[in-house]
Amino acid sequence: MPTAAPITLHVPSACAPSAPVLLAISGGRDSVALLHLLREAGFTNLILCHLNHGLRGDESDGDAMFVQRLAKKYELKCEIEAAHVAALAKERKISVETAAREARHAFLLRMAEKHDTWIVFLAHHAEDQAETILANLCRGSGLAGLAGMHAAQRLDSGLHLVRPLLHVRRSEIDAYLKSKRCKFREDSSNTSPKHRRNRLRHEALPLLNDIFARDVVPQVLRLGSLAEQDDDGLQRQAFAFLTAPQHVNEDRSLLVTPELLALHPAVLSRVFALWLREVVELPGIEHDDIEAAMAMLAPKGPAKINLPHDRHLRRKAKRLWVE
Q1: The CATH number of domain 21-212, selected from 2.60.34.10, 3.30.470.20, 3.40.50.300, 3.40.50.620
Q2: How far, rounded to the nearest angstrom, does the alpha carbon of residue 198 sit from its chain's CA centroid?
Q3: Under 8 Å between Cβ of 266 and 234
Q4: Partners of 254 in the beta sheet?
Q5: Where does 244-322 sit in CATH, by number?
Q6: Model's pTM, two decimal places?
Q7: Average pLDDT in the 36-50 region?
Q8: Is pLDDT of 2 > 60?
C-alpha cells in the first residue's frame, strides 16, 4: 500500500510531549487520526476524553466502547461520561447542537480540573474551518467570526484549545488513516440534512466548487487568515487605547475625551467591547449593545441605554459608567 504524504502537526511549543494533555475524541476518523499522529509525535501522556451525547442509541454506546478499547490498547488514561443532550436542549430551549457544545465544554472543564491540565487537543481540520467561516459569514459576523477557529485559543474558563490539524485537508486525513490501516467509527448523523453544518459540507461547498470551477476551500481559508490578521491589529489598537492611564478612571468609568471621539469606528467598537466585557466585567454584551453605546457619543445621542442583566450605561459630564 502506498505511503500517504506526511502530516505535520501545528502544536504550540508550550505543549510538552511528556506533559499530561486532554484529547477530545469521538471515535470518528478525525479524532482517531489525531490520536495516532500525536502518539507518533511523542505525546505519551494523553488523556482520552469522550462524551456520549446519547443521541444515537446503541451507536453512541458503541463509540464509547471503541474509545475505551483504544485507551486500553495504547495504555492511556480514559474519561467517559454520558449526557442527555436532547433533554438538556428541550429544558433550556436551545438547539441540540448548542446543547451538545455546552455539554462538551462543561465535561472538558471538569476533566481539566480533575487532571490539572488545561490543554485540550481538538481534531478540527481545514474543511471544518471553511464550513465555520461560511456559517459565520451567513450570520453576519464581523472580522472575528470570519477568522473562524483559532489554532490555539484560550477560553475564559481557562481551557486552552489546540487544533493541530486546522491546516490539514480531509483527504489527507483519509489517506493517512488508510495507509496506517486505522479503524474508526462512522457517525451516521454526519450525513443527516437536519444539521446545517452537514448541508454546508455536502451541498454548499460542492456547489461553490462547481460555480467557480475550482476548489474554494483554500480561498475561504485565506479569507479567514486575512480576517484574523486584521482583527488582531484592530484589537491591539483598542487595547493600547484602553490601557493608557488617561482614558479610564479608577472607578472603571470611561472618559469621553477628544481622543475617544476621534477613533475610527472599527477601533471604537472594540474599545467599547473590551471596556464593557473586560474592565467592567459585564457578561452577555452583544453587537447591538456595543452599537447602542457608540451612539451615545453622537451630539444628540442618548444619555442612558439598557444593558444585559438589568444594568444601564449612562453618560454625563464627559464620562460613561455602568450602574
Answers
A1: 3.40.50.620
A2: 18
A3: yes
A4: 248, 320
A5: 1.20.59
A6: 0.89
A7: 96
A8: no
